[in-house]
């Protein structure tokens, strides 16, 4: 059972009382709703109010949009939520992951190319400032996967590199930048991507390291950053067969599951052996790596039963809410497991003082705070970081520098799809660059 007086919460008696009193006052429906992170696909006020009033969601994510739209979205959500919401962004490389017009600073690979902890801190600081300006209080970053297979398309540029030592120091600096705002820290994707070519969007990932190899690499990273005080961890749809077999010797090959559905990996390894006392959230449940593991009716409650505390994204709101409630009522999710998850969810909210901010009417920042988004100071900082990490490998044909005087016509080709898939649905991208001559 979670201990809210210890790392990463450090709750006071007053905060503890709010957590306990709130849980005691909740209906079963409100308790079940707190387990979900809802993807906002409609910003109509009636749809936003429906998510918090009828489904009682504990957190939200959203598709990027202009600052004013996101600010208004989050204002409506927080003003209508009985329990304050965690509002998550995805600022892995800067504020561009949290708000339209946000500043891109450096991806993980660029940070490693700079070999500078200040760059990692600046990525997180700018991302935190710009996303906090529209109401975010949780950042799903950094990536602490280790790139042992260069063919891996998921974390190839998002991860720092393949060094546990480097990843630990960059991640600690990233946390420092995140903590400049009232924002929950996170890292992903447990138990670790980067060893293979599989894409969890398409099939279950497999980290095929031995237990000893994992302990000395990914395990070392997770243990040290847990000790550092990271508040939340995102579990990936990645199996770790060696540890599954070690902790559950009778498991048949066909029964090996991704971490998001595996009690031996989340409860026994992450929360048990590694001592993680914080909150675990699943990666997106629409990814085939999780979705194909078992029927949706079983998958939804099994993620919580396995030890994950929050479930990322509804498919159909009525169906998934019903599946979670059914899993609780038929004992798949025990009273003890539900209570533990709720204490961790509300514990994070209390650690961020969201209950006090709600009482004071200050969950949303002043509108003028949005002036920091894409400001000249942040663009200057991004340029300074770029000077550290941009590396010229070779220029045997002497094409550089590419100036207007030297090259009168340059063709820019943007390679992309028709939009972005968010929560299993294609979102049209009207802002995508147009192919043109310039």
Description:
There is one protein chain. By secondary structure, the chain is α/β, with parallel strands linked by helices. Helices cover 41% and strands 11% of the residues. The chain has helices at 13-25, 28-34, 45-53, 67-80, 108-114, 117-132, 164-178, 211-216, 218-228, 241-247, 263-273, 288-291, 296-305, 317-329, 335-351, 354-359, 376-389, and strands spanning 36-40, 59-62, 86-89, 138-139, 186-190, 205-206, 232-235, 238-239, 279-282, 311-312, 411-412, 419-422, 425-428, 436-437. The strands form five sheets. The protein has a five-stranded parallel β-sheet with strand order 4-3-2-1-10. The protein has a three-stranded parallel β-sheet with strand order 5-7-9. Helix 2 (28-34) packs across helix 14 (317-329), helix 3 (45-53) runs parallel beside helix 4 (67-80) and helix 7 (164-178) runs parallel beside helix 9.
Features:
3-stranded parallel β-sheet, 5-stranded parallel β-sheet, alpha/beta, single chain
Fraction of residues in β-strands:
5-15%
Uncertain runs are 430-438
> Can you give the mean pLDDT?
93
The description of the largest β-sheet is: 5 strands, parallel
Structural class based on helices, strands and sheet pairing = alpha/beta
User: What is the CA-based Rg, rounded?
Assistant: 22 Å
End-to-end C-alpha gap = 61 Å
| Shape type | globular
Beta strands, count? 14
- The percentage helix is 40-55%
How is the largest sheet built, in terms of strand order? 4-3-2-1-10
Q: What is the count of helical runs? A: 17
Blueprint of the fold:
Layout: H1 13-25, H2 28-34, E1 36-40, H3 45-53, E2 59-62, H4 67-80, E3 86-89, H5 108-114, H6 117-132, E4 138-139, H7 164-178, E5 186-190, E6 205-206, H8 211-216, H9 218-228, E7 232-235, E8 238-239, H10 241-247, H11 263-273, E9 279-282, H12 288-291, H13 296-305, E10 311-312, H14 317-329, H15 335-351, H16 354-359, H17 376-389, E11 411-412, E12 419-422, E13 425-428, E14 436-437
Parallel strand pairs: 1-2, 1-10, 2-3, 3-4, 5-7, 6-8, 7-9
Antiparallel strand pairs: 11-14, 12-13
Helix pairs in contact: 1-15, 2-14, 3-4, 5-17, 6-7, 6-17, 7-9, 13-14
